[in-house]
Amino acid sequence: LIYITRRFNFSASHRVYNPNLSDEENLKIYGKCSNPNGHGHNYIMDVTVAGEIDTETGFVMDLTELKDIVNKDIIYKVDHRNLNTDVDFMKGILASTENLAIKFWEQIENKVKTNKRRLHSIKIQETINNSVEYYGKSKQGK
Ligand code: NI
Predict the structure, then answer these.
(1) What is the mean pLDDT of the segment spanning 93-110?
(2) Cys-Cys crosslink for 131: which of 9, 28, 56, 125, Cβ 3.0 to 4.6 Å?
(3) pTM
């Protein structure tokens, strides 16, 4: 298998909090990320596809096709938005980076998949020091 990766950037705001807890309890768990009026991040996301090389094109996947899928189904929906209130697939879901990675995966998994390639990972860097990687629900070996 060969792994190809395209990087994306988006800026978004969120408040990380559990609505069932008080502001005080949220502050204890999430610190300044639970600031009631929210805050923003410049996210960096790496989307990796694994597959075999197509003998005609020499590609695992045309990176422009991957770019178009991710832009349409993820980036245009989250860039310069509030992740708690503006994004249909994040409604009712705690806007942590972990949950973002899982929901992003769900948006594009089927569009990337063919009999020769599949989504391998989504890595989201929220800050210089913090990042999350998601590899799907189960270990997908071949
Ligand atoms: Ni945050």
Answers:
(1) 97
(2) 125
(3) 0.92
The pLDDT of residue 32: 87
Q: Where are the beta strands (DSSP E) in the chain?
A: 2-14, 39-51, 81-82, 117-125, 131-134
Distance (Å) from CA 124 to ligand 1 centroid:
12
The CA distance from 128 to 117, in Å, is: 30
Ligand 1 ion: nearby residues, β-carbon < 5 Å: 33
> Of the residues 25, 52, 80, 133, which is catalytic?
80
Q: In a 3-state reduction of DSSP, which class is residue 56? A: coil
The reply to whether 80 belongs to the active site is yes
CA of 39 to the centre of ligand 1 (A): 6
Give the 3-state secondary structure percentages of the chain, helix then strand then coil, rounded to 5.
35, 30, 40
Please give the distance, rounded to the nearest whole angstrom, from the Cα atom of residue 78 to the centre of ligand 1. 14
What is the C-alpha separation between 45 and 131, in angstroms, rounded?
9
Which whole number is the average pLDDT over 119-124?
98
Convert the pLDDT of each residue in 27-38 to its tens digit. Answer: 999 998 898 899
The single residue listed with the structure tokens 């391998």 is 120
Annotation says 14 is catalytic? no
Quote the pLDDT of residue 81.
98
